[in-house]
Amino acid sequence: MRTRRLWILGAVLMFAAAGPASAYDLPKLLGGPGGDQQNLNTFKLIHVTDLASLIQDKQADLHIYDANVPETREKFGVIPGAHLLASDNDYNVAATLPADKSDPLVFYCANTHCMASHQAARRATSAGYTNVSVMADGIAGWKAAGEPTVKPPVQTSSNS
Q1: Residue 79 near residue 149, CB atoms below 8 Å
Q2: Which of 13, 20, 64, 124 could bridge 129 with an S-S bond, Cβ 3.0-4.6 Å?
Q3: Inter-residue contact 101 to 128 (CB < 8 Å)
Q4: Which residue, among 39, 41, 91, has the nearest Cα to 65 in the 3D structure?
Q5: Per-residue pLDDT tens for 64-99?
Q6: Segment (H or E) for 50
């Protein structure tokens, strides 16, 4: 218990000596360019129930992207209406994503341990898209929740 108090006291003293909180540059701390850059290239994390609700809202111009490899798609299927990405980190943003950068985009991959959807979403936010989400549960969580899937279409070698 004494060690914990000393550690907390040390951390408080370190931050107090570092200066005011306004001196910290959050974008720079998160690996960005820092300075006046306000775009942190962030996306929202959502879950199966959130995506199911978005799909039910016919007013939303929702775009869903599957960042899985073909083997995962064959095993679990894909969410109906999802666009298949040829790659999570090398897809053609201009040809694949909608022209309106405020349209809602949702990316998903295999499961909570898979980061392909995160990588694909970062590409979208870096390209200026502002309404980007990742369904963290992935296709495995989607199926486990009893949501519908379809067989993946035959893939071509294009980046769409």
Answers
A1: yes
A2: 124
A3: yes
A4: 91
A5: 999 999 999 999 999 999 999 999 988 999 999 999
A6: helix 48-56
